[in-house]
Amino acid sequence: MSDTRRLQVLRAIVEDYVHTREPVGSKALAERHNLEVSPATIRNDMAHLEEEGLIAAPHTSAGRIPTDQGYRLFVDKITEVRRLSKAERRAMDILAETADDYDSMLEQTVRLLAMLTNQVAVIQHPQHVTARIRHVDIVQMTPQKALVIVILSSGKVEQRMVTLAEAVSEESLHHLGQRLSEQLFNRSSSALPIPVDTLITAVEPDLQPAMAVVANAVQTILESGRVDRIVMAGTANLARSGGDLGPAIGPILEALEEQVVLLRLLHEMQQDQRGLSIRIGQETSHESLQETAVVAAEYTPVENHGTGAKLGVVGPTRMDYGSTMSTVRAMARYLSRILSEG
Amino acid sequence: MSDTRRLQVLRAIVEDYVHTREPVGSKALAERHNLEVSPATIRNDMAHLEEEGLIAAPHTSAGRIPTDQGYRLFVDKITEVRRLSKAERRAMDILAETADDYDSMLEQTVRLLAMLTNQVAVIQHPQHVTARIRHVDIVQMTPQKALVIVILSSGKVEQRMVTLAEAVSEESLHHLGQRLSEQLFNRSSSALPIPVDTLITAVEPDLQPAMAVVANAVQTILESGRVDRIVMAGTANLARSGGDLGPAIGPILEALEEQVVLLRLLHEMQQDQRGLSIRIGQETSHESLQETAVVAAEYTPVENHGTGAKLGVVGPTRMDYGSTMSTVRAMARYLSRILSEG
DNA sequence: AATTAGCAGTCGAACTTATCGAGTGCTAAC
DNA sequence: GTTAGCACTCGATAAGTTCGACTGCTAATT
Question: Does one domain contain both A57 and A120?
């Protein structure tokens, strides 16, 4: 028994099924792919594949479809990560030019990823962990309200409104901002907590209450920066991808809106040697995502592995893994590059 | 012929249909609502209503369902805007406490609105038009890159990365920021364009190229602030609301992701005397939204009518208008209040 | 003029039955 | 290890049937 032909058969099944959305039978396989053997032989192979749990038959008299394990093997051993098409490269290059601020950068990228893959795309907001404090600014909004703004080396700008116990002059606020900037400059945002007490005693007594409020706000900002967030695009692709997922689409959307689920999942996923992390069907270990697969890759502005955030797509298990994988990986590399450049 | 009873019949049809999702017949109506007339009489009324185009029968031998015009009449003349339940009030109050920065404020609100109405909720980002420049800040990121930050009186913080032709010291950048702050302070963000030339000539010659870049960035920021944006939540509710919208859900999601469509629609909608704007079915004049209705209301931090942004929900035409309308209106008022407070 | 009872007629939904054919597994021959 | 042949399975499709919820109309009633 030729073991490699079995894999060829599996590959053929996956490819055909992905393409036609219908269970594929031995005859069709023999015709469409030049395996150079008869349908009967293929049937034997299919029987083996079924025993190993790689494919399954919806009904006795129907063709076979890949199981989650089948897709897994396909993804791990069989498929090759494609090269990008010129059009895809072009789209990315164009994107690079129109990017200005941080948030819209991510937003545009996630849209592009959704378009290119025809799937739901997600990007995890980079965490602050490695970012350093670049500047702190305090702006008076009303006599008793002020906006505390923290700018990080990553280019991210965080803000928070605070209410002061009593009115503080604009100059004083500015002064406080300068103090904070000096004291916290280049401090890693993950080195917590900031020395609030020291900061307070370092200013004139009459400003100490204000400083307390403001310093706490900075602290809160840094903490909330560690909370993950996600930007998403292309949810319409879920529906468009056909009655494929059928009525399950509702729960999937719910799970996606429930960002926590996705974040946990992304967090758990380990990158393989190809620079991709993939979860298929039950591997997502989430009820509503049984019929979906997640293809993700890390992107990091610098070479600090482990803290990098992820980006990826969510689609039906029956997806074109080859092209999805390559697009996701390319997009991750691309985003890393852009972010490193500034 | 009692004209008011006809309306009662219409109301009953709308209510029953919204509740059961099934065409409602004369017999069922006579039983469930105490109209005190026989089914035959109701049939006569229904014939009239059908003539007027307010209801229609899917098949000859089926009950009637309201047409878009039927819903419209129902909304305009019949339904009353309900009061909020205690639970709803509570949810809003809790929200008020957890709000800190601008964006997450809107995000939380839109989620709450989606939850309360069980529909897709949208909030239009407030436009800058009435906001004034509060502060401009420039922070060095790398020797040749700087982040330009504009803080508006509304509390919104806008940012943009710029690349300088040649390295500029941190102090010089700061200096430029101060100049811009002074010159542009309290300038309405809609008063355009800013006097770039004047600003440039007001600084030392060696800083003029940098000033040019930076001033242009500010200009761009102010302009982009006039571009509308939308935050959205609860897309899963679209699917959950049952096969109701059926396969049409895909195009609807697409239309929603295409924010432009929604923005145009919201823009066109005029608020009625109750403080609500509603579009039903074809009134949306958008292909994919034929089966949906939009209920929106303006919210404004201050009493500058006309420039206020809108918030609302998108759902199937077959929705509970009464409760949706009240929730949307309450949320608009609530958001106005929060934003006015700071 | 409005209301009502009665009744014939319509038509989709749901159920039944029959047919068709793609696909399988098995056996025996190559 | 491969292949041809064959009996068998079973879902999908089509066609036919029944059932019942409704309607619209007419004629009687208030």
Answer: no
User: Residue A13 is part of a domain; what is its CATH number?
Assistant: 1.10.10.10
Give the pLDDT score at B306. 45
User: Is the C-beta atom of B8 closer than 7 angstroms to strand C?
Assistant: no
Tell me: pLDDT of A56 over 50: yes
Contacts of A111 (CB under 8 A, 6+ apart): A121, A233, A234
Give the ranges where chain A is alpha helix by DSSP (H).
3-20, 26-32, 39-51, 68-73, 86-98, 102-117, 170-184, 196-201, 208-224, 235-240, 249-257, 259-268, 321-341
In this structure, the answer to whether residues A177 and A250 fall within a common structural domain is no
- Among the residue ranges A146-155, B140-149, B234-243, B310-319, the one predicted with the least confidence is B234-243
Chain A residues with beta carbon closer than 8 angstroms to that of B149: 137, 149, 151, 157
CA distance B258 to B250: 12
- In this prediction, residues A142-153 reach a mean pLDDT of 88
pLDDT digits (tens, 9 = 90+) for A283-304: 999 999 999 999 999 998 665 4
pTM for the model stands at: 0.88
Residue in B139, B149, B250 closest to A240 by CB: B250
A203-248 pLDDT tens trace: 999 999 999 999 999 998 888 777 778 999 999 999 887 667 777 8
Q: How many other C-beta atoms are found inside a 10 Å radius of the C-beta of residue B253?
A: 24
In terms of residue numbers, what domain contains A211? 133-224
* B contact test, residue of A140, A249, A256 with most B CBs within 10 A: A249
Pick A151's closest partner by Cβ from B134, B139, B257: B139
Same domain, A115 and A255: yes
Strand D surroundings (CB within 7 A): A 1-2, 5, 36-38, 40-41, 44, 59-62; B 24-28, 39-40, 43, 46-47, 50, 57, 60-64
Residue A301 shares a structural domain with residue A237:
yes
**How many domains is chain A partitioned into structurally?**
3
- CA atom of A41 to C1′ atom of D5, Å: 14
Look at phi and psi of residue B52 and say left if phi exceeds 0, alpha if psi is from -120 to 50, else beta.
alpha
Q: Is residue B307 pLDDT above 70, yes or no?
A: no
Q: Which two tokens stand for residue B70?
A: 């039927």
Let me know: does B263 contact B231? Beta carbons within 8 Å. Answer: no
